[in-house]
């Protein structure tokens, strides 16, 4: 059965239909590790290579199915780390036997199949890189490249292997700016070979030229949505702004993955959720809509007075009143107070530059609210001036933060310490 592609596909479909896909994946990983850690010491090396090759020919088709059990099994158990580790052990044994055998057809096919899982598996590509590095992907690539003595006039198999190593390293360099990949590289052991260490040190500077690398080296689509079938590389990417560990090719893929997986696995989102549950302050759309409507009324009453106020002209003589960003303090109980903090605004001249081109048609106002016992909320709003002279909220950005409180600063009444 293992030698037939049709039989392998039938086996995978039967396992998925019967709900045994997760168990089949686990059993294959156990057999793979047994082959490289136990059988490699007792069985002939070609037999072990053929056995691993047949196991990989079942694992690879399994990863191409959009099946939750298989995806969760790879995600939770870090199977890609085990696959790369197994291939690294196998390549070390082959190199010890004879380095040139790394480029024999069967051995190269096994190594290439495992490395290609980095690009084809329906799991998160950044997680793939992290798991592969933990499985000593760099050691495997170095071992394969060291077997190539000269890049000129290479046989077909060695040329393909050299291109695979180059292609994989190029992608690794492209993804070095992502925290999850950098963290794993930081835990990677140092390369002892001085020549290889020099190459790695020079390659480590490549993230500084990431834009250039993306232009010169063709890259695969970086999208953590497992249902994404886009094959061409997008012009830009979208990254989760909270944890910065998930990347997508489009807003549609980001929204789809957020509902399916990332909302439950984003550690920053979990921290926010726990904090809000503890303080019983969940910021809902209805809260935001009420604050926007209330702030719109305040602005229509206060902005004309603010424009005539000499405080703005005295604080910023080089700017017109409508170029200044008023900060409305709504932390009081009854009446909000409109204030301008010159030191704060001088640190943000980009607001002036953005507003100068808009003229009197748009205003930028920042509202501060108390939210719960330990949090504050900043609602930055862009107001558009209507033909009748009234302002309407065109866009708003809410930002939450921990409110700093200082204990022991309240004045003590004289009656308390004069007695």
Describe this structure in words.
Pfam families: zf-MYND (PF01753). There is one protein chain. The protein is an alpha+beta fold and 419 residues long. The chain has three domains: 215 residues, no CATH class; 59 residues, no CATH class; 120 residues, no CATH class. It has 19 helices and seven strands. It has a five-stranded mixed beta sheet with strand order 4-3-5-6-7. The longest helix has 24 residues. The radius of gyration is 30 Å and the shape is elongated.
Total strands: 7
The percent range for helix content is 55-70%
- Low-confidence runs of at least 5 consecutive residues: 189-193, 199-221, 340-354, 405-419
Count of distinct structural domains: 3
How far is it from the N-terminal to the C-terminal residue, by CA? 97 Å
What's the tally of helices?
Answer: 19
> What kind of sheet is the major sheet?
5 strands, mixed
Any idea what the radius of gyration is? Answer: 30 Å
Helix/strand/pairing category: alpha+beta
Q: In order across it, which strands form the biggest sheet?
A: 4-3-5-6-7
Global geometry: elongated
H-E string: HHHHHHHHHHHHEEHHHHEEHHEEEH
Mean pLDDT: 69
Beta-strand share of residues: 5-15%
Concise summary:
This protein is an alpha+beta fold.
Please describe the topology of this protein:
Elements: H1 5-17, H2 21-37, H3 45-63, H4 68-77, H5 79-97, H6 105-120, H7 125-134, H8 137-146, H9 156-174, H10 179-186, H11 194-203, H12 210-216, E1 238-239, E2 247-248, H13 251-265, H14 267-279, H15 285-308, H16 310-315, E3 327-329, E4 337-339, H17 342-346, H18 349-356, E5 362-371, E6 375-385, E7 391-402, H19 414-417
């Amino acid at each position: 059965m293992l030698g037939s592609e049709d039989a392998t596909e039938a086996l995978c479909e039967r396992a998925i239909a019967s709900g045994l896909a997760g168990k089949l994946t686990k059993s294959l990983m156990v057999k793979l590790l047994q082959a490289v850690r136990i059988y490699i010491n007792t069985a002939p090396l070609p037999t072990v290579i053929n056995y691993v090759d047949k196991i990989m020919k079942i694992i690879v088709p399994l990863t191409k199915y959009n099946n939750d059990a298989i995806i969760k099994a790879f995600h939770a158990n870090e199977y890609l780390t085990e696959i790369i580790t197994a291939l690294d052990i196998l390549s070390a044994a082959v190199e010890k036997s004879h380095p040139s055998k790394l480029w024999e057809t069967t051995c190269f096919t096994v190594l290439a199949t495992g490395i290609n899982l980095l690009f084809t598996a329906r799991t998160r590509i950044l997680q793939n890189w992290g798991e592969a590095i933990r499985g000593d992907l760099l050691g495997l690539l170095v071992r394969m490249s060291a077997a190539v003595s000269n890049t000129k006039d290479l046989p077909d198999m060695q040329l393909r292997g050299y291109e695979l190593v180059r292609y994989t390293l190029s992608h690794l360099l492209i993804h070095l700016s992502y925290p999850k990949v950098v963290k794993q590289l930081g835990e990677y052991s140092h390369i002892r070979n001085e020549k290889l260490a020099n190459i790695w040190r020079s390659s480590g500077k490549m993230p500084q030229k990431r834009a250039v690398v993306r232009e010169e080296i063709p890259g695969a689509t970086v999208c953590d949505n497992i249902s994404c079938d886009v094959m061409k590389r997008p012009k830009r990417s979208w990254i989760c702004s909270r944890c910065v560990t998930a990347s997508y090719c489009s807003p549609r893929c980001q929204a789809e993955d957020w509902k399916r997986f990332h909302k439950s696995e984003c550690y920053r989102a979990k921290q926010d959720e726990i904090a809000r549950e503890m303080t019983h302050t969940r910021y809902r759309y209805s809260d935001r809509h009420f604050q926007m409507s209330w702030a719109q009324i305040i602005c229509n009453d206060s902005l004309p007075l603010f424009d005539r106020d000499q405080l703005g002209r005295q604080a910023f003589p080089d700017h017109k009143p409508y170029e200044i960003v008023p900060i409305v303090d709504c932390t009081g109980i009854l009446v909000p107070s409109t204030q301008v903090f010159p030191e704060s605004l001088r640190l943000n001249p980009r607001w002036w530059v953005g507003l100068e081109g808009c003229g009197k048609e748009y205003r930028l106002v920042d509202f501060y609210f108390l939210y719960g016992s330990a949090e504050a909320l900043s609602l930055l709003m862009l107001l558009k001036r209507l033909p009748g002279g009234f302002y309407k909220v065109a866009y708003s950005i809410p930002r939450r933060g921990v409110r700093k409180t200082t204990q022991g600063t309240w004045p003590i009444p004289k009656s308390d310490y004069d007695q």
